[in-house]
Amino acid sequence: MSKEKSLAEKMKLPWKKMPIAGIMFEPGSTVEYRTGEWRIEKKPAINQDKCIRCFICWIVCPDVSITRQPKPYKNYTESVEVDYYHCKGCGICAAECPVDAIEMVEESKVVP
Ligand code: SF4
Ligand code: SF4
Asked: pLDDT tens digits, residue range 13-70?
């Protein structure tokens, strides 16, 4: 039997009094779920030298997994990075990047 407490136990409710359907008790809590861990094939790798900081990838990512970091790089004030904990590896960012700065690489590859 699982050591995890069921929602009924956490809420201290008998199951018959549980609300029907899912209810969010803490807004924004989905960030805690590392959905990127389900990714099985490829992940995006951003070449900071090629990137022109147009932020198209940041706009089009359906999982809000492209992040803008306040890390100066050469003439830029920001770096564009991937949140691998939530990226699902769909490849939209790589397809939309106008300068081919994003490459979809094998999951096992270490990205600097
Ligand atoms: S779309 Fe390409 S060039 Fe634009 S910010 Fe993203 S990685 Fe950089
Ligand atoms: S591969 Fe898909 S989910 Fe991952 S950063 Fe690119 S657009 Fe977002």
From this structure: 787 877 777 677 777 777 888 888 888 889 999 999 999 999 999 999 999 999 999 9
- Ligand 1 environment, Cβ below 6 A: 46, 51-57, 80, 97, 99, 101-102
> Which CATH number do you get for residue 91?
3.30.70.20
DSSP secondary-structure letter at 98? T
Q: Rounded CA gap, 27 and 43, in Å?
A: 28
Residue 94 covered by a domain = yes
Which residue CA neighbors atom 8 of ligand 1 most closely?
51
49 neighbors 24 (Cβ within 8 angstroms): no
The reported pTM is 0.78
